[in-house]
Write a structure and sequence with these properties.
four-stranded antiparallel beta sheet
């Protein structure tokens, strides 16, 4: 079982930045892909970004050019740098560890961290 703990959420004004962190522990596989999803009130959880061991990344169209995902395999930690935040980025952000090496097929979830973009 993999445990994932997110941190870094909060309240930020439109145009601001936040960096989320996700620390993995337990029966981890630092080789599997990891990623971020988010869920806004009244909406389904949606994919945000993912990264695999080779460093290949994927992003939702809505965040391309604004968000950057990265990972430190030595620390079993994945990050999400979010810039130029918009009110529509508001939601609970969940870290996910994939069942697969190269693609994001969520197998484990973190508890989520709230991100609120508002003036």
């Amino acid at each position: 079982q993999v445990q994932l703990v997110e941190s870094g959420g909060g309240l930020v004004q439109p145009g601001g930045s936040l960096r989320l962190s996700c620390a993995a522990s337990g029966r981890t596989s630092s080789s599997n892909a990891m990623g971020w999803f988010r869920q806004a009130p009244g909406k389904e959880r949606e994919f945000v970004a993912s990264i695999n061991l080779s460093g290949s990344t994927a992003y939702a169209d809505s965040v391309k050019g604004r968000f950057t995902i990265s990972r430190d395999t030595a620390k079993n930690t994945v990050y999400l740098q979010m810039n130029s935040l918009k009110p529509e980025d508001t939601g609970v952000y969940y870290c996910a560890a994939s069942k697969k090496l190269w693609t994001m097929v969520p197998g484990s979830w973190g508890q989520g961290t709230q991100v609120t973009v508002s003036s």
